[in-house]
Each structure stands twice: as structure tokens, then as C-alpha cells.
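The instructor's notes for this session suggest beginning with a concrete chain rather than abstract definitions. Hand out the sequence below and ask the class to guess, before any prediction is shown, which regions might be ordered.
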Amino acid sequence: MFGIAAISTRAVFAQESDIVSTLPVDLVASKAPYTLTFDHISRTSTLQDQTGEILETWPTDVVPVASLPADRPLLFVVTYANTLLYSYTLSADVVRTVDLHSCSSPGMFSDSQGFLETILTAGGSGMGLMDVLPMALSGTSIRFELDELSSRSGDDDKEVSPLTLRRTLDNIESAVTEYAGDMETIATLPERLRARLAGVAARAEIEPIDPLLEAVQSSVERVLPGLSNPVAVPALISELHEQASAQLTSLEFMHSAVENHLYTGSADDAAVSTLESLRSRVVTAQDSVSSALPRLQSILHEIQNARDRSEIRFVINPSGPTVRQLGLSLDATESYADVMRLRTSTVRLYTRPGVRLTCRLAFGVARMDKPSRYESPDGEIINSAANETRVGAGLFLNVSHASIPLVGALLGIGLGDGSSPDLYAGGSLRLLDPIFVNFGAVWQRKPRLNNGLGIGDAVPDPIDNGALKTRYSPDLFIGISLAR
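After discussion, reveal the predicted structure:
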């Protein structure tokens, strides 16, 4: 865009002090930032100032070039980010260095103070889920050993009659069946959630992802309140077990009696078949939950992460006098490989330093009328320098607004005709940088006739200009100067 190849600065900013993470901007910046927002769904970009006022919006087919204050940080925000399908990486490259000529802080960027040009990574490229989520029960079985429950009764050698077995089943079957059903539902959640998230990932290409994920979490909460919190899953499963603890104890006691031939009825009784079927279901459900728990916690954590990262923020230090190219890379994640990615690409945006007022020091010359020189050769007062001009050298300050940089105001001081300096005020026109054409008023110190005297008055004695009082008087000037 600028006709100059981008110069990568990734390797330059390796020091920790130059790397700004996704911490809140008030922790890493002394000034309120400008905000550049990229909408993942519409692919439009919006620039806001530090007060939140929208300054400019760029449609999809336009490459944004954002003008930013050179001394303010930039908050780069990705909205409606879909971290299920993409990882988001922001890089910054210097395109060129420009002369700011800022009036607010002249010379503030003359030294090479380091500014952030680094790759910030968020979304799917962060720490792995298994690295940040401690699996409290990973590698161990969560099955609550039913034979341990049976030891609580202390009646290991007591015989069980068919009537006792039938009554016990009548008392515990409903609660144990509900417990087994809850455990079976929890065990199947990972696969069902994975399939549902694939649908969410696809829909999030065209609509905001956060409401979709909130609906998924709500469906998990309907299974068991609090289950959408991955850290709370083991405690909730333990709570389910404790609620059915008495019934599970009775279940295991009856199973132990049958196993140890303490059942006085026939092993072919329907009640025995119901008992063994019920116990087998509980054991299978517990084993399934034990196997599914790490995957369940992982996918629940993935859902919450995707919600938290639906808006991704990068903080970049002030750019100083540089034009920069920002590259937002949308790389496909390894998950949900069957879902079509519509956005995989690198989005290019440009930033350039902007100042409201520019100030240029310039050296130049100006042509103006000569100061008056009074004489009385024939006894009559005349101005012998009336039709003469002079050229004076001066130092000028050109001030212009960023919206009309070719025209500006001018102040200056120059070498006067005598010992006093000339003072300039006016305007300037920048013909070809750094050449300015200047015009306006110049104040020169001029001799002043005594009160009551004027041009053409008769005087008896010759006029001594050196003895006359002087004062600053304005004249018009035009000149040219060369800015630095």
C-alpha cells in the first residue's frame, strides 16, 4: 500500500518489558487507548477514540488505515471471536517511519524508545485445556466400591429371606435406578456435547457465539444444577452418591448375601435377577463416568473458554513516528476438523501516527518596506526611504492543522534594520515540502517624529534620526523559508 516493503520487527522485541499481554489496558498503559475493533462475523473494522466516540468505520472490502495519536496505546479488539474453529494471532510490522512535527511534544520521538511490535496469541493457541484444568480424579476410578458400603451394616453373616429381598428392592429400586440414570446421563455428556459444539462452531460463523454457548451450558445445568462448572463436576458426582448412599449400601448387602449363599430362596428367583441387573447397571454407570470424567471436564472448560474469548483483546504500545501493518491471523484449530472454515486468512490493517497540530521550524528571508528615514534637505521634512524595500533573514515557526496541512499560521523573529529584531505574524503556504511561502505583517522599530511634526512640515534645523524616539510599527511582508 505504501510502496515500501514491510520490515519485520518480531525478533527485535524479545525483552519481557516490550511484550504486552491481554491484561486490562489500565494496567499496561498510562494513557487511555484508542480502540480498533474487528468484527469476526461481518469483517468490518471500527476506530474509536479514548472516549468511545466512533471516528471511522471500514466495510469488508476496504483495507483500514487508522490514524492514531502517536503517544497513545492501541487496544485491538476482536468481537464475536470463534475460538472453537480459529486461533487468533496479532502481529505488527513497521512499514516506514515518518516525521511527526507534533506541536504537543516536539522531539519526544527523536530517540529510539522501544514500542511493542510482537506477536500476541489468544484463542485456540493458548495453553492447552489439560494444562490449566487440574483433573482431581484423573487416573483413578470414581466408582464407589459397593462392597465397602456393605461393611457399614456389620451383618455379613445374616441370612436373607425372599420376603426381605423383595421388600428391600421395593424400598431401594426407585432411588438406585434414578442414581444409575443420572450417572449414565453424565457418562454420555462428552459425546453429546462434542456433537452439539460442532453445530455451534458452524453457526458461529454467521451469528454471535456467546448466546449459542450459553444455551449449551443451560442444557447441561438442566441435567444437574452446577454441572456446567468443570471444577465442580467431581464434587457433584460425590453428592449424587451420598444422596443414594443408604440405598446403595442395601443393594450391596443383598448382593453379598446372594453371593455368599446366605439367601434362603432360590438363585433363580425373579427378585435375584432384578437385584443383579440393578447392581450391574450401577457398576457399569460408575465405570463409564470414571472414564468420561476427564473428557467431560475438558469440554466444559472448552465451552467456558470459548465464551470468555468471544471478545479477544490485544494491547499495543504507542507507535511513535511509524506506519505499521497489523496482521490478524485466523488459523484453523485442530478441533472440529469436519466443520468448514469460512474465515481462515490473515486480515491486514494499517495504522499511521496522527497529530492535530504540526509545528515546523524554518529558516528564511522576507521582503518588506524599509523603516522610515527622515531628512530636511530644503528645510522641509521628507522620508527618504519611502519607496525602498529591504530583505531580512529570520527564524519562523509554521503551525498547521492536520486537516489542512498545506496552509498554516506563522510566527517569527528576524534580523532588524538596526539593533532591534523584526517580529513576524501571518500565514504560510507549503508549496513543496519543505519549502514554505510566507506572508503577513512584520513589526519593525522605526523612528518617530516629534509631536506636531509630519511629512512636508518646515523645520529650521536638520533632522537627526538617531535622536528621534522609536517604536514598532507594522508593514506587510512576503518571503520564503526552508523547514527542517
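Then share the key points. The mean pLDDT is 81. The two ends are 27 Å apart (CA to CA).
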